[in-house]
Amino acid sequence: MSETDANTTDVLVIGGGTGGYSTALRAASLGLRVVLAERDLIGGTCLHRGCIPSKAMLHAAELVDGIAEARERWGVKATVDSLDWPALVATRDGIVERNHQGVAGHLRTAGVRVVKGTARLTGPRTVRIEGAGEFTARRGIVLATGSRPRLLPGLAADGQRVVTSDDALFAAGLPASVLVLGGGAIGVEYASFHRSMGAEVTLVEAAGRLLPLEDEDVGRHLARGLKKRGITVRTGSTLTGTELLADGVRATVRTPKGEELVIGAERLLVAVGRAPVTDGLDLAAAGLAADERGFVAPADWSRLETSVPGIHVVGDLLPPPSLGLAHASFAEGLLVAETLAGLPSRAVDYATVPRVTYSSPQTASVGLTEAEARARGLDIKVNTMPLAATAKGMVHGQGGMVKVIAAAVGAGGDWGLPCSNVVESLGNTGAVLGVHLVGPQVSEMIAESQLIVGWDAEPADVAQHIHAHPTLSEAVGETFMTLAGRGLHQH
Fold it and tell me: Of 467, 469, 489, 491, which residue is the catalytic one?
C-alpha cells in the first residue's frame, strides 16, 4: 500500500477525548475507515484530568464524610486515623489507567487508526499530522480538540499555590486551606472535596448564587448544604488582587457591599470556566474561523456541520446551547458519525441533557429552570418538596429538595412562564418542562426525570407509577403525584 493510500481515509477525527473517540468508534462500527489524531492521551480531559479522577477522589471524600457521620450522628465510634495520600492517588490513577486502556482497546478492536501527533488543517478535506504526513478525508473531518481551564488576566497557575481544575488533584499533598474561585459545578465539586479532606474552604462566586446557570432554588439549597458543612460561601463577590507568598496566597475579595476582605490560603483554585482549544489547528486553511469566544459554531446544528461542508464539530469547541459535558459529547459524536455515514440521525436535544454537580450535597437537573420558564411566555405550575419530608431523606440527613416545573393545560406556545410555589389545584397540568434535585446521590436519580422531560410526559403519566418505599426517589414520585392532584403527603 502506498503512503497516499495509507493516508486516505473516510473520516479523520482531530482529538481523542469523549467527543472524538465516540465519533471514531461509531463511524468505524458503520463500516467507515477512520483515522483519529491525538497529541496527548486518548480519553482527553474527562478521563485524565476531569470527570473520572475527580469523581474517584470525590468517592474517597464520601467515605471520609461517612466515617464522620457514623461517629457524630449514629453513635458508631469510628475515626480517621490518617490519610494515606499516595495510596489514594494510586487507586485513582489505577481507575484512570484501566479506563484509558479500555478505550484504547475499543479503538483497536474497531479498526480505528490512532495517530499520535499534533494535527492541523491544510484544506477542507486535508490534515497534516506532525510526524505522519498529510491525510485526506473523503467523507469529512471532525474537530474535537476540547478545552482548557480559563485563567484571569495577570494570574498564572504554578501547579502548587495557584492551580486550575486540570492540576488541582495532582498537586503534591492536601492543603490545609483553599480559596476556590468560581461557584460553577467544577468549583463547587473541588470545594466540597477539600472540605471533606479537612481543609478550611472559602468559595467565591461573582454571580449572586452558586451554580448560576441552574434553578435559583438549586443554588439556594446547595449553598445551605455547603455552609452546614463549614464551607464559607461568598456569592456576588469578586477577586480584586492576589499576592503569592512562600507558603500560599493572599487574596483580596470585594463583597456585594463593597467591603475588601483579605483571605489567606495555602492554595488558590481557579475554576472560572473553560476555553476552547484551537491553537495550532489553522482553521483559516480550511476556510473556518473561531468566534470571539474561541468556539467553532456549526452552520447546521442538526448535523453539527460547519459552514465548510464536510467539517463537523463536537464537544467543547461548540458554543451554547451545547453544554460542554462529556455525556453530551458522546451524543454529538454519534450524531456526526451517523451523518457522515449517510444515515438519518436525530439532532441532540440539549434541553434534555442532564446536568450534575457531584458535591455533597449533589445537584442534578434536566430541562428548564423556573426563570427560563418565566421567560418563555407560558403559564406553568411548580411543585417543590423537601427531601427531609421523606423517611429516607431523614435517614440521610443532608436536606435537599425536588422541584418540578410543568406547563399548565392550554398554555400553548413554547416552553414556559410564571408560577407560584404555592401548590393549589394542580391536577390540570401539561408536559413536564424541568426537574431539579438537590441532595444525597441525586446524580443516580436524574435518569427517570430525563425520560419524563424528553418524552413530554405529564405529571399524571408519572403519578400512576409506583416508587419504592422508603427511597429518596419516592420524593420525586410524590412531587408528580401532587401536581397530578393525587398527593398523599403534600396538599
Answer: 469
